[in-house]
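Limitations

Structures in this collection are predictions, not experimental determinations, and the ligand pose is part of the prediction. Treat each record accordingly. The example that follows, with coenzyme A as the small molecule, is included so readers can see exactly what is and is not provided: the inputs are given verbatim, and the output is the predicted complex.
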Amino acid sequence: METKKINAAITAVGMYVPEKILDNKYFESIVDTSDEWILTRTGIRERRMMENGATSDMATKACEDLFKTTNVKPEEIDAIILATVTPDMMFPSSACLVQKNIGAVNAWGFDLIAACSGFLFALQTGSSFIESGRYKKVLVIGSDKMTSITDYTDRNTCVLFGDGSAAVLLEPTTDTSYGIIDSILHIDGSGKDALNMKAGGSLNPASHETVDKRWHYIYQDGKAVFKVAVKGMADVSYEMMQKHNLKGEDIAYLIPHQANLRIIDATAERMGITKDKVTINIDKYGNTTTATIPLCLTEYYREGKIKKGDNLIIAAFGAGYTWGSLYLRWSLD
Ligand code: COA
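Predicted complex:
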């Protein structure tokens, strides 16, 4: 790998999850399912629901939480990258709304759509901004109000998703043994029919017909996605380990996207990583799409589990298909 003069390091984290909890029992009352099925097939016990407010409101709260932990002021932020599949509106971007809410008066920014790989792709994008030397302080946010696009009559999908948001601050470090070291990222549009939201874009603008067909909700062929997700996440994470000569015991934590505990377990097994070294929040929050990974980072760091110098591998897979892995060494005390 070519030597870089600057790495991007995560120098602050913050999060927000709404208070309202939807547990598995609730789903037993609205669709033909059971707590036992949901738990054994997915690993989910409960998820959160944002009742009043949108994706940008959750992202704003996550950023406010982050700013409580750093001397950096919102006006010092150069750029905001907000990964989401549930922007408040098609435009303006939710990044603009967060910029105004937090008072990041000198920032530019944009939304990034890569479904469940959104935070991973945004983290690499923000990292490249820092490595270029042009930007010094980049906010990378994963925020999704999945309950706004979930069909609560479809048992195949409604039990899976929840709302949440988390943010990280990227700043330069000249000690290149820390920070974001490498990433391997992929997209493959042949996945479009297996996981999508068909309407609301330029292909199928909103109409009575699209509403009647329930095309403004998530559609997923779970079995098809499951197979490629396992292979995609495991292969790319293993490739990252090979590339950097890392063994299972060299890695403090695998931080996988949280779509299904069985996909997570299969990825960890392929990497030779024991279960105690895999971050999990799917039991509490379900699949929060772009927020799963930064929520894990924030909670495990705050609980004292992720420590300075730890080797971390982030892995994700999502609609598109999109997938990848990212290797970083944690730099926060
Ligand atoms: N409760 C009870 N039964 C359910 C159910 C629910 N909530 N959801 C589906 N089922 C049923 C199905 O109808 C099917 O019944 P049938 O055999 O009578 O048709 C049966 O359970 C098995 O369905 P299947 O889809 O094979 O289940 P699965 O074990 O694959 O689990 C998912 C379903 C969605 C949990 C799983 O496929 C998955 O996690 N897929 C990948 C998700 C992912 O990674 N997405 C990418 C990022 S978002």
